[in-house]
Amino acid sequence: MVNCKNCGAPLSLEDAFCPHCGTPNPEAQEHLKKLAKLDKDYRKTKDEVISEVKKTKKGYGLLIVLILLMLANLLIIPFYNATYDLANSINASRYSDEEIKATMNELLEKGEYEEFYLYYDRYNIRYDQYREYNWIANLSSYYSQVCHYLTDYLYAKESYSDPLLRLCTAMKDYVDDSERALKRDDNEFAMPYIKDLNEQFNKLIKNCLHYSDEDIEKISTLSSSELVVLTAERMNNEKED
Question: How far apart are CA 233 and CA 240, in angstroms?
Fold first, then answer.
């Protein structure tokens, strides 16, 4: 928890000055300095890459480009990951475990699993912090992917890759994770929500892709490519009817 040294108000890395008393936040200012330095280093690396490309069209020029970009990523990615974790930690520390659990329970009771996963991901800084929710969160993340790719498949006019293949891969991931969760004997708290999620998943696939109960039972036994064929057949049959 970062607090103002003058008035004690809670501060985040985005607060360069205390919003209550105006006192400078040294942690935020140091954070901004690091970001500025990383941006400067990145721009320098980018300029060097462009310079090398202009100097040569030979094969080793591409190798130099790749090496420089890899070095830039090695510098920037760990810093941003650490900054993201720190920001989440500061944000989560503003709420008690009871408040966070109450919100997660409320979202679960409403069946709002996509919203639950986003909230869980935001505040579950350590994997063991809310262990009883982990399986629900894992399955909710796969369910969110299915919903996202299903929307792409049904409504997106253009896509950089095959939306049906991505949808079928997400469906298979969901079913595989669900089967693993149902086999565990330490999921007493999570089990009702896992079953409810499965009901939502089955309803979604039946209504939107015209799968039968038998089709859904076969998902785990088929490859993603085979699911593509099956889904295309069900959609075509529906259009003909």
Answer: 11
Work out the percent of the chain whose per-residue pLDDT is above 70: 60
CA dihedral (121, 124, 126, 127) positive or negative: negative
Q: Are strands 10-11 and 2-3 parallel, antiparallel or unpaired?
A: antiparallel
DSSP assignment letter at 129: T
pLDDT of residue 110: 92
Q: Tell me the DSSP string of 2-63.
A: EE-TTT--EE-TT-SB-TTT--B-HHHHHHHHHHHHHHHHHHHHHHHHHHHHHH--SHHHHH
219 within 8 A of 175, measured Cβ to Cβ: yes
Residue 221 has pLDDT above 50, yes or no: yes
CA distance 91 to 143: 26
Strand partners, 11: 2
**Exposure of 204 by Cβ count < 10 A (0-12 exposed, 13-18 middle, 19+ buried)?**
middle
What mean pLDDT is predicted for residues 71-85? 51
Per residue in 2-35, pLDDT (tens digit) is 677 777 777 676 666 676 676 777 776 676 666 6
Closest among 123, 92, 133, 102 to 2, alpha carbons compared = 92
Residue carrying the six token digits 């063991």: 128
The whole-angstrom separation of Cα 195 and Cα 170 is 18
pTM of the predicted model as reported, rounded to 2 decimal places: 0.60
Map out the domains of the chain as residue ranges: 2-92, 97-240
